[in-house]
Every structure is written in structure tokens, then in C-alpha cells.
Amino acid sequence: MRERVLILGAGIQGISCALSLSAKGYAVTLIDKDEEPFSGTSFRNEGKIHLGFVYANDHSFQTSALMLEGAMNFGLLVENWVGRPVNWSSLRSSPFQYAVHQQSMVSEAALLSHYQTLQNAYETYRNAGFHYVGSCPQKLWASPQVVNSPINPSIIQSIIPTEEIAINLKRLRQLLRHALKRRGVQFLGNRVVHSVERSSFGFCVKGSQADGTDWRAEGGLVVNCLWASRLAVDATLGIMPLRPWVYRLKFRMLGQLPPELATMQSYTVALGPFGDIVTYQNDLTYVSWYPSCMRGWSDALQPPAEWEPFCREEQVLTDHPWVQDALGELNELIPGMNQFQIQHLSAGVIFSWGETDIDQPESLLHQRNQIGIEAFDGYFSINTGKLTTAPLFAHQLAQQL
Ligand SMILES: Cc1cc2nc3c(=O)[nH]c(=O)nc-3n(C[C@H](O)[C@H](O)[C@H](O)COP(=O)(O)OP(=O)(O)OC[C@H]3O[C@@H](n4cnc5c(N)ncnc54)[C@H](O)[C@@H]3O)c2cc1C
């Protein structure tokens, strides 16, 4: 009989693990408190498949190297699990232009030196036949350009065009949900996980359902992909992290650009506590401005319960002062952005190691290389870190087992 694996959490990480382990022959049960898979943070983020441009303040290059590895494996692994080539062009955003802020934490010269290291590392993947979610450009970035319309040159010193993109999360969700069905993964929704115990047959996972009744499930192996609840459930087995961590609550807005900006490219403002705009040919635009949209900070074992509604429902907060502040800041950067028509507003939780915010150059939030799988004799806990790295970690888990 095939060994049963219980995978806790059906975000990008849990789904990727379910697909990689079912492909390896395991009987997989995927468990989530939501009714459907891919409803949490994985559905409420920017969707950027990071090549490593953002992590120029990690001078060890380790974060960028890991992001690049995740990015260059992302498309191939998803295609493998879906069982056919994917038409990535229908999922891709317009490419990111890196808008170097006058107050960038890292100088333009240092950014360019980092980007050149990135290019060298990328060429190894390219020469080995890997693709970056459907494309194999020769160069990942081009020389800095003079700032002109629609960007305000008094705020931005130069524009660096890149090949980096985000992917449409609605379409990725469709692909992954379809793959779960195709692979015969058992999905148990509406089940909150409270604890994991070791038992004679491996593990017993216990929790409650929406109506308050208890449930339990048994399996030979457990993979914890609970993201915001990961540490709390690890703790029920006595597993505690040995370093400080922080949860942040970050909002994002989806909506329509004003007509005069309708053909705008995607932008990331580099480098520091700034923001991003992501545009698609036939879909809503993503907008977030860090100082206004980062609305919660917690170093508790689990984020505060008050954050939960913001991460589940669309909030009608568009008149809230911080929303207007965010659009005001973006309007300084790109005149006209204060006419952005918000259609969806919700938040996601970000877990990271560290204690200080990204406005501090030495903050650990600039380093995301200490992420991935921790193994405890049949129990695995995965710190996803980024959407970008989730398929890679699922693949590594399948190789470990
Ligand atoms: C605004 C924002 C922008 C971001 N932008 C990017 C980006 O551009 N690129 C990038 O690579 N990353 C980005 N990230 C980070 C990325 O979204 C996360 O790293 C990733 O989605 C985490 O995936 P996950 O599967 O671990 O978590 P989730 O998607 O949250 O999945 C965890 C699942 O566990 C379930 N769950 C939680 N607790 C319980 C429980 N007790 N019982 C049962 N089920 C439970 C949840 O319902 C959820 O479905 C961003 C994050 C945010 C918030």
C-alpha cells in the first residue's frame, strides 16, 4: 500500500508538495481551513517571479542566487505537474522597469554591479536549457535610461528595464487546482489544524471544522505548509525557532489605471521601503506602496486574529486615510495614479526572520536565503519564504524522501 502523506496548508507550497509527492507515488491528503485550495496569501500577493533584482542589499548574493534558482525552476516544475506545456505568455505581466529612487538604499552603481552578477549566474541556467516562466532572454536587464513620461524625474534618478515579470495568480490557481484533480490528490477543506502528535502509525493531526466538531487524520508523514500558522503547529510537537521572526500584514489593491496610463509597464521602485505596480494586457493592475500598505507587525507565535478578515474578504476600505496616502505617494511618482480605480483590496501575511523593518539597511528582511525545508524524523516544516521558491522546495522535498 502507498504511504499516506498529510500536507497541511493548500497555498502554493502545500499544493506544490502535494503534486510533487503524488507524482512520486505517495497517497496525498491536502488539508486547509478554506473551502478551496489557493485562497490565502498565495492568492493575495504581487505574483512576481523574483530573479533576484530586489535583493541587492544582501551582499552575500545568497538571496538572489536562491530566487534565481526558484525562478528558473518554477515554469518547468509547474509544467511537469500539470502534465503539459503551459502557454506562459497568457499568464505573464508586462516586464518590470526598475525605477531607481533618488533615496535608494543602494547606489545605482552598486545595483548595476549586483545585476551583472545576476546575469552571470543566469547564463548558467540558460545554457543548461532552463527557461524563465516561458522565456529565455539573452540579457536580463538593459543599461539605465533617462527618466521620462510617465515617471516623475524629481523622484526617480534612472530606469533600468528588466526581463522580470509577475504571473497572473487567477490563472496560476486554475492550473494548479486542475493539476490536483488530475493527480488524484485528496483535498479536505474547511478544516482548521490545531496540533500534530506522533503515534504508532506515524502522526495524528487534530483540528476542528467550521461547525465546531473535531476532526483527525492519520498518516505516515506530515508536511507543514501552513505559513501564518506554521510555527504554532510546529510548537505542538515541541519545535521552536532559534531566532527572532516577524509577521507583517501587507495590503495590495487591484484595479483599473486611468486611461492615460492604460498602456503603462510594470514598475518596482528600487531600493528600499517603496512599492510596485504590475500591469497585464487583459487584467487588473496590482498596486502597493510599502509605507502605507504595511498595516501590521507581530512577533507572536501566530499573527493576531484581527488580521484574519483582511486576508479573507475584500475590504471596503477605499476611503481609509492610508489608502489615499498610498495613492498620493504613487501619484508623486507617476502623475495620474491618484485616479486609480480600486476594485479589490485585501491583504496577505508575510513571515520573515528578523526584528527590524526594511528601512534599516542591516535588517534581516533583506535576506531571504534562510528558508526552505526543515526535517524532524518524518515531520517536515517548510518556510516558503516567497511564492517564487515554493515549487523548488516541493521538488527538493520529493528528492529528500
Ligand atoms: C502583499 C504581498 C506581496 C507579495 N509579493 C510576492 C511576490 O511578488 N513574489 C513572491 O515570490 N512572493 C511574494 N509574497 C510572498 C508570498 O505570497 C508567500 O511567500 C507565499 O504565498 C506563501 O505561500 P504558502 O503556501 O506558504 O502560504 P499560503 O498561501 O498562506 O498557504 C497557507 C495555507 O494554509 C492555510 N492555513 C493556515 N493556517 C491554517 C490552519 N491552522 N489550519 C488549516 N489551514 C490553515 C491557509 O488557509 C492557506 O491556504 C508576497 C506576499 C504578500 C502578502
Binned, the helix content reads 25-40%
**How many strand segments?**
17
What's the total helix number?
A: 9
Distance between the amino and carboxyl termini? 17 Å
Say which molecules are bound, naming each kind only once: flavin-adenine dinucleotide
On the 0 to 100 scale, the average pLDDT is: 95
Strand content: 25-35%
Q: Structural class, judged by helices and strands?
A: alpha/beta
Low-pLDDT residue spans: none
Written as H for each helix and E for each strand, in order along the chain, the element string is EHEHEHEHEEEEEHEEEEHEHHEEEH
The radius of gyration is 21 Å
Overall geometric form: globular
Sheet with most strands:
8 strands, mixed
Structural summary, described in words:
The model has no long low-confidence stretch (mean pLDDT 95). Helix content is 26%, strand content 26%. It has helices at 12-23, 62-82, 108-127, 169-182, 230-235, 290-293, 308-312, 321-333, 390-400; strands at 4-8, 27-31, 96-101, 156-161, 186-188, 191-199, 202-209, 214-219, 221-224, 245-256, 266-270, 275-278, 285-289, 294-298, 341-353, 372-376, 379-383. The protein is of the alpha/beta class and 401 residues long. The two termini are 17 Å apart. The longest helix has 21 residues, at 62-82. Helix 1 (12-23) runs parallel beside helix 9 (390-400). The strands form 3 sheets. Strands 3, 4, 10, 11, 12, 13, 14 and 15 form an 8-stranded mixed sheet that branches. Strands 5-2-1-9-17-16 form a 6-stranded mixed sheet. It is built from 9 helices and 17 strands. The structure holds flavin-adenine dinucleotide. The site of flavin-adenine dinucleotide has 36 residues, from helix 1, strand 6, strand 10 and strand 15.
